[in-house]
């Protein structure tokens, strides 16, 4: 059996911080975890085309503060903040609590692994060749000043009968050096032939911008 560890969990408390920040006793803990999952699932489905790499959740008393990182804040906020108010009302209804929404803009989406993986997934869904999509993602990220990038696609690539894994990499991506700033992202492309999984690792020399 494979002994793979999630790259985000592997770096927790060393390079990364938790995506949820709150404290609860034994009775409340499962309910809060379930609530966080509900919020994330709802927002990821609703904001699928708004390029959202991360959702940060904080709790204080009965209030829940949700911070949405997005590369396209215009889509999330809407005209005169109409979409944002609607989103806030729907979230409050979902969890039966007061929900505060904050929007943070991602300045360089090409250096965020989750967004690169989602971009490749969208291209595969539009029937663009997987090699071309991967190559373009690698070139764009390297041009933006990354130290290295690795993109991996798994599934029935190009509609082949047998599923396989292909990858492209450029620069350096030292996955076992915990001090290195490695960003990881995973996305799924729902194609006609089945689901194709896309994984992306990006090594940045500069410290990550609050994401």
From TrEMBL:
InterPro entries: KH_dom, KH_dom-like_a/b, KH_dom_type_2, KH_sf_prok-type, Ribosomal_S3_C_sf, Ribosomal_uS3, Ribosomal_uS3_bac-typ, Ribosomal_uS3_C. One of its GO terms (molecular function) is structural constituent of ribosome. Transmembrane segments: none annotated. Gene3D superfamilies: 3.30.300.20, Ribosomal protein S3, C-terminal domain. GO terms for biological process: translation. The keyword rRNA-binding applies. Pfam families: KH_2, Ribosomal_S3_C. Belongs to the universal ribosomal protein uS3 family. Binds the lower part of the 30S subunit head. Binds mRNA in the 70S ribosome, positioning it for translation. This is Small ribosomal subunit protein uS3. The gene is rpsC.
